[in-house]
Amino acid sequence: MDKVHALLELQERDLSLQRLAKELDEMPEKRAILAARAKIADIGKLKERTDTVIKHLDAAAKVIDDNIATVKAKMDSEQAKFVSGEITNSKELQAVSRELDSLRKRVELLEGEELAQMQKREDGLAQAAKIDAALAQGAEREAELTGRFKVRGSEILAQVDSEKRARTALLAALPEDIRTRYEILRSKSAGPVVGVLSDNMCSACRVGLPTKKIEALMSGPDLTSCPNCGRILVVRGL
Ligand SMILES: [Zn+2]
What we know:
Elements: H1 3-25, H2 28-84, H3 90-172, H4 176-188, E1 194-198, E2 201-202, H5 211-218, E3 223-225, E4 232-234
Parallel strand pairs: 1-4
Antiparallel strand pairs: 1-2, 3-4
Helix pairs in contact: 1-3, 2-3
The protein binds zinc ion.
């Protein structure tokens, strides 16, 4: 391949590489994966909060349980006194009986609290189960998106690979001075860096050139610089 065609072909490969990089960067799956991950993180925070609530409820239930056990132990001891026959004084017996009543009421109260606490715990566990289901669903969605991203992404990466190999071969086909100029121009600009002289204008900057400049270009080399934009200009050889 001659240098003019190699240069224009090289530019095509580079513009294609730019498009592929953009496509890879803007893949809808990529944004969807990020959104799915953000959602999973949010649900994870909710799970942490729910777990903390359940832990507190468990601790509170333990306190109530301990209280009930203490009061019941007290009741047993009062009960034992009552049936032992040691107390014969009726006033004392009445006092023990009143104490037993009061302890019984206390146990009833605590058991009521315990029931309410257990209900709260049930609600908390139901909430935790919902959160776990949402987390599993989120993970499934993320895996599905990642799978799609990998399939499409690897197709793009294969194209990138093939363009890069073509690029290397084309670069090798160019004389060193042109190769260096091309690479310097490319490092400064994202768009085309090679224009073709056509209809008295450079196809890259699309600025019409005065006749005198055209004449000078026509009497010069096949490849030169555009007098207007400084890009490499193909004067002839196509
Ligand atoms: Zn130009």
